[in-house]
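Lab notebook, page 48
Experiment: co-folding of the full assembly
Goal: obtain a model of how the components sit together before planning crosslinking
Operator: M.T.
Materials (sequences as entered):
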Amino acid sequence: MKRRTVLTGLGGIAASAMVRPAAAATVGVTKTEIKIGNTIPYSGNASSYGVIGKADAAYFQMINDQGGINGRKINFITLDDGYAPAKTVEQVRRLVEQDEVALLFNSLGTANNTAIHKYMNTKKVPQLFVSTGADKWGDPKGFPWTMGWQPSYRTEAQIYAKAILENYAGKKCALIYQNDDFGKDYLGGLQDALGKDFEKHFTKLITYEATDPTVDSQVVALKDSGAEVMVSAAIPKFSAQIIRKAYDIGWKPVHYMSNVSASVGATINPAGPEKAVGVITSAYQKDPTDPEWANDPGMNEWRAFMKKYIPDGDLADGGYSFGFGVSMTMVQVLKQCGDDLSRENIMKQAANIKRLDVPVLLPGVYVSTTPDNFHPIRQMQLTRWTGKTYERFGKVIDAT
Amino acid sequence: MDAFLHQLFSGIATGGIYASVALALVMIYQATHHVNFAQGEMAMLSTYVALTLIQAGVPYWIAFVLTVGASMIVGIGIQWLVLRPLEKAPVLASVGVFIGMLLMFNSVAGWIFSYTLKPFPSPFGEGPPMLNGLFSRHELGSTGVTLLVLTAVWAFFRFTRLGLAMRAAAFNPISSRLVGVPVAKMLALGWGLAAGIGAVAGMMVAPVVFLDPNMMAGVLLYAFAGALLGGITNPLGAVVGGLLVGVIENLGGAYVVGTELKLSMALVIIVVVLVVKPSGLFGKTLASRV
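Observation: model returned without errors.
Model output:
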């Protein structure tokens, strides 16, 4: 109760700040430069995400080489937080208070962005296009200075619910989810889309803890429930266990799997590629390794960028194309700002993106925002594991 | 009924995992009267060594033997290098060292082998599940290995002079030294054997839970519970305790309290058992005369 009061209060203050003229409030911006901050793990156990930061930096370098935005060059300061939230807080304070950046862009990690969520909103510094799938970044009333980019877990679950309604209406469904914010976003998404009928469709809900050694017992219980459709909101380790155990006990439900676990290396191969045949997940980006995009003009645009700015980068790594797409969105917002680069106007423009087609996203998937919708990407296409690769099927599904 | 049997057998299979790690804990406790918190991480590192050998083309069972051998040498090395200087230090200093090693081994494994989940082969083959899908070949095979290790550990302590000397060295170092037991060597050997058993456990666990640097974090907790439930002084007790924890956790989670509270329920039962019988179900109460 108390927390809600604080949040609405915060929203009120922010809203009143937004209507104020932006005369003095151009922190981080000069006639020739826009300063943008970022934190990302370049070291530690999540350092494989570091390529996104490299792609962001290279993209802004390209924009600067092309003359910048309205005559201003982007000064991109990206710092290593080692994926540790305490370190993120320290680095972000440095960016905001010492370096005086105009905004924070594409910081990575759910726990990391959670750690600075209130700080950014109290300081009224834009925390734009964060790299995490949690749903809480799209809360314009409670946190008007924060916005995500990729489809949230909740959006993804809404899309699965739509697909189930269309193809498997009337069948018994079951959900297994990790007992934390990540798993509960999927529960919430299914409930959003099915409304009062949720309990009619989903007759069995079961949780696991991230510390459980195995989820075999849960899979047995799901089979026992007689469900014919399963949604799993699990990280790769447990998704692999679910796929293997279901196969071993001879249970063959239609399996919608969180795309957090879509990785072939981390989930499908450990489970056994033949055991995963038929598993359905979702995608919104063009997979750089998919032969279908070998001569795609959009992906070629990205490949040309890679060749010039990150010549030693791995062209199979989707992190680079992700960075390309999200940076392109950032540049679009700055272009829309024109000469008014106050933090208020930056947020206002970020919340007014009119259908931006980004070349690295699937056809039919685009970026769009409004003042009440802070979920920039809301479409995905389903994709099915065939035993060797994923194959996209059906039309692009819009969650809204 | 079918579902109940599936839950029961899946509990036994998971319990087998806990039992194999619990055996390593019993070994180190019998040999040194310490509980090594880094046991799980040492086993995880050994498993990475085995995977590296297998990927280099070494046949499974040769890699298995090499890994166990290498782990024993490293275990002995750790005792000589790290724990020997702490021999006269209070117990808390050792606990600090164990926790330090836990963190260190975890980071080293992540640094060298990365945090990506890796599949680990089973020596018992893939093949279709057996007994109407109740047991996979690996679950059956690894349970067999656990029972073999159990028999070996039990026979070692029960029938060999070395085993007796080792127990004596841990129980009363001063008297042992007076009757001619080389206490320092016994402690080092105990560490070596525990590391070897841990390596076996790691290689049996990895095909089930997959290999990553955090593979043992959850398992070790349950293995502790199993060892305490059965009695940490008794290898048979540790195995029975491990299996019981697995079964209680599975059946309780499925039929009694739900998945959110299944670990809590298993731990509550253990606390109750220990209150009634502090040395565990099979443990002997040891009295030391001061």
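Interpretation: Chain B has a mean pLDDT of 88.
Next step: discuss with group before ordering constructs.
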